[in-house]
Amino acid sequence: MKALWQQRFINHVKEQRKFLKLVFNEYFIIALIFMLGAVGFWYSQALTTLPQGVWWAQPVAIIIIGLVTLLFHPVTLLQAADEAFLLPQERSLPEYLRDAYSYSLLMPIISLMLLGFFLTPFLARGVGFSLLQVILLAIIAIIIVITLISNQLTAFYQSSPHHYLLGENIILNFGLLIIAVYLNTWLALVLAVLWWSWCEYRWHRCLKKGVFQWHAAIIKEANRSYQLKRFYNLFTDVPGISSKVARRKWLDWLFQPITLEQKNAYFYLFARGFVRNSEYSGLFVRLTIVALLLIYAIHNYWVLTVIGALFIYLVEFQLLPLFKKYDAIVLTHIYPLTESQKQQSFQLLVTIVLLLQWLIMTLALLIFLGLHLTTFLPIIISLVMVIVLVKFYLPRQLQKLKQ
């Protein structure tokens, strides 16, 4: 069983590396750097206006840490066929699960350490914590998440998984955080260690005497893997994951201005594809919402100028796959349409989408920042970015796609 885990772990790492290379391309890294910089700038500005010892700081810290600890699940790498083929080797399964348990702790521990680092100034100013108390709170959160994953593995040995253990996880998770924040961090640390020790004992007892619920464990691993692949599918095509296509009849009025003529055939096709396919319309909505949140939080005009231009570029770049989306459809080759009509129609669609995004961000800038001369700096630069992308950059990208 140990060799089986090692084989699956190697294949899992190879698969994750392949997708992460596609996700963290140079464009996404640039966007991530600017977004982290913008969030860091807003965070530092917000901390300067945060009153010391404000009453709502404790509940906010408890909710954030508590929800983050509940996000993580064990990575078992079990497959559907295991229910039949590995059943005779169930006595050797604990060796496999111990390796899975160790690997499952890696991401939660790293994430909580980063979260503790991020929340340190907030806890110091808003809650009044010392550095030692912040470190102890981070250790408590790490012990809690280790215990939660242990309990999720224990649930696979229960006759009715995910019932009382789920309630135990939620209640004791937030209960220990409340004790740590409101009462005493040392007391919460001792209670967390006691809870973890009891759960470890219970899990090892189940490993020796319990009956493993193969079906429940396989379904949970399939759901975890599917959610991760859905995230990857936002950036690249993932085998077995298809983007959601919806009719969206309530948006039919958007296509009424398009006259049913031969020259508009590709434009109608691209417009329908953009609206119906969540891979494109959903991404446009998500990026625009993130841009609006940053506009609301940040009042530095130079930073907002960069953010506006950056998000317009991200939308344009993410729309490029739509250009070749329908190349495999035979009718697009049979119908008497030229390649220039296709390119002009796609450029028109991109122009409309980017101008719509620019208009939404312009309204947000005017609402949140007011009508000032400096407000027009990000507005004008973003509009220039739209023109440069559509007139100069997009045609070059489409030529590369054709080749």
Quick summary:
The chain has 2 domains: 2-232, no CATH class; 249-402.
**Domain module count:** 2
Q: State the shape.
A: flat
Radius of gyration equals 26 Å
Q: Give the helices and strands as they follow along the chain.
A: HHHHHHHHHHHHHHHH
Mean pLDDT: 85
* N-C termini distance: 48 Å
Q: Percent of residues in beta strands?
A: under 5%
Put simply, the count of helices is 16
Question: Which regions have little confidence, pLDDT < 50, spanning 5+ residues?
Answer: none
Structural class, by secondary structure, is mainly alpha
Helix content: over 70%
- Total beta strands: 0
Largest sheet, in brief, is: none
